[in-house]
Write a structure and sequence with these properties.
The protein is built from 5 helices and 4 strands. By secondary structure, it is an alpha+beta fold. It has 2 domains: about 1-60, N-terminal domain of TfIIb (Single Sheet); about 85-179. The chain has a 4-stranded mixed beta sheet. A hairpin with a 6-residue loop joins strand 3 and strand 4 (about 55-60).
């Protein structure tokens, strides 16, 4: 069973795993239950809007209480998403926002700030894959095809110094939208 650290991590996992027809959109319902061993389980289900296939995701929730959203989890790295998936998601969100908020409407500023908060949270997740005293995310941490492609395209992006610089830039742009 997939072990997730938070509801936002469950949702991101669902969003990053499209239907067999290729559709990424999925309006889900969810419920929480205890399994026979007492673990908290989150069930998500919905119907693909393109092909009508029923889709179900079942996650065991980590016992650690997660930080509030938009964070995806505590201090430990994800067990269901790899650093390349988080990097790709962060890059996609940040790339959809203008770097300079001047001339952006109030409503668009709020939307952009929300996207940047998620981009920062995803970028923070990438850093969690660096081992203590390490200077980069190890190659074996990339467990998904798309995550591995991100790594292979530019391994240097996953060095601690680059990840921290990226976070600094993202946080600066976020502050400009919040200020």
């Amino acid at each position: 069973m997939l072990v997730a650290r938070s509801a936002p991590e469950c949702r991101l996992y669902i969003d990053l795993h499209p239907c067999h027809c290729g559709e990424h959109r999925l309006q889900v319902e969810h419920s929480l239950r205890a399994d026979p061993g007492g673990a908290l389980v989150a069930d998500y289900w919905g119907t693909c809007p393109r092909c009508g296939a029923g889709r179900t995701f079942v996650f065991e929730l980590d016992e650690e209480i997660p930080p509030p959203p938009p964070a995806y989890g505590g201090d430990r790295p994800s067990r269901i998403l790899c650093p390349g998936q988080f990097m790709r998601y962060s890059t996609r969100l940040a790339g959809a926002v203008r770097a300079d908020p001047r001339g952006v409407s109030a409503g668009e500023r709020v939307r952009a700030a929300g996207m940047l908060e998620l981009a920062v949270a995803a970028a923070v997740e990438v850093v969690k894959f660096i081992p203590p005293n390490g200077d980069a995310v190890p190659a074996q941490a990339f467990t998904s095809p798309e995550g591995l492609a991100e790594y292979q395209a530019e391994p240097g992006r996953f060095r601690r110094v680059r990840l921290e610089a990226n976070l600094e830039v993202l946080r600066g742009v976020l502050r400009s939208y919040q200020g």
